[in-house]
Amino acid sequence: METVALQFKLPLLAVSLLFLPFLMATDFKYCDKEGNYVVKVSGIDISPNPVVRGKPATFTISASTGQAISGGEAIIDVSYFGVHIHRETHPLCEETSCPVAVGNFVLSHNQVLPGFTPPGSYTLKMTLLGDGASQLTCISFDFKIGFGTSGSSVSDT
């Protein structure tokens, strides 16, 4: 009886592990539903999820492009319960390897949020601009900051 149960559980566990990345994927939406963006986003992964105050968090965005991209900017706007609280701009080539060739690529942003960052629901809006300020894409997605902290430090690292 125990052997039969084990034979049933192992395949079920294996199948569950295959779908785990899809279950943890973050939903996103394009800023303009009618927009014909050069960069198409296929998925977002946030690690850890929820984000922990005072600890490194990585936002990884899988995307593809129909044209080569030599540079530009990534503009990140953050809202807390609908109120805009933060904006930062990064050279696109700091977030991904440039030049970006036609096809699939990954954009990765690392951030350490201060220990005093309030827990709760946040919305991140990311706009990618190419050289010449042409909009390559614009997406938004929600993420949560948990109640954990890094310890005694309250400095913005």
UniProtKB/TrEMBL annotation:
Domain (MD-2-related lipid-recognition): residue spans on this chain: 28-143
Keyword Transmembrane in record: no
Membrane-spanning intervals of the chain: none
SMART domains: ML (SM00737)
InterPro entries in the cross-refs: Ig_E-set, ML_dom, ML_PG-PI_TP, NPC2-like
UniProtKB keywords: Signal
Chain coiled-coil ranges: none
Residues annotated as signal peptide: 1-25
Protein name: MD-2-related lipid-recognition domain-containing protein
Lineage of origin: Eukaryota, Viridiplantae, Streptophyta, Embryophyta, Tracheophyta
